[in-house]
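Translate sequence into C-alpha cells.
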Amino acid sequence: MRLPRTVTVGIAVVTGALWLLVELMGATNQTAVAIGLIPARLSGLDIPSLVPAWLTPLTSTLVHGSFLHLLFNMLMLVWCGSAVERGLGSKSLVILYLVGAYAAAVAQWLSAPGSMTPVIGASGAVSAVIGAFALSFGQTRQIVPSARLNRWLNALWLMAAWVAMQIMIAWAAGSQGVLLATPAHVGGFLAGMLLQRPLLLWRYRDA
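Result follows.
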C-alpha cells in the first residue's frame, strides 16, 4: 500500500488538531504527564500513564506547551518535510519522523535518566526531518577540501541554529523545562543525518 504524498501535511494537521483539543479542554499539564516523555518512566519508575512507556516517544510529539511552540515546529515540518517527501518519498518521511522521535527520546533519557520533567513536542522528530533536509538540499559552503565533509559541517551548523531557535522559543513561551530538551533535538537531528543516505539509496534502488 502506497502512502499518500501529503503525509507531511497530514502529520501537521493531526498534531495541530490534537493540540487544539487539549487546549480547549485546558488539560495541557495533565496531558503532558499522561502521554508525555518522562525519562524516569523509561528507567522503570512506575508513573501512572495512559500509554505504555515505550510508546511515549511518539505520543509526546502530539503535545505542545504553547501555540508558538506548535506553530514553529509545524512550520519547519511542512517546509522541510515537503521537500524531503518529494525527494525521498512518503515512506522515508514516515521513517525519519518515527526514528527521530525515538532517537530524541533516547538522547534525552541518556542525559537525565531519572528526570521527572515531561518532555513534550514534536521537535525531536522534526529535527530528524531537518537533518535529512540539510544533507539533501542545504547550500554547502566551502570550509574544507572534502565536499562530503563540507555537507556535514554545514548541516551541523544548521543543527546548532535549530537548537538555538528552540531555546529562544522556550524562553519566549516562559517554559520552565517541558519545552527545552536540547539532547532530544540533537539526537533527532543526528538520526536524520545518518538516515538520509540509506533512505536516498533505498528510494532510487531500482534506478
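Note: The chain has nine helices and no strands.
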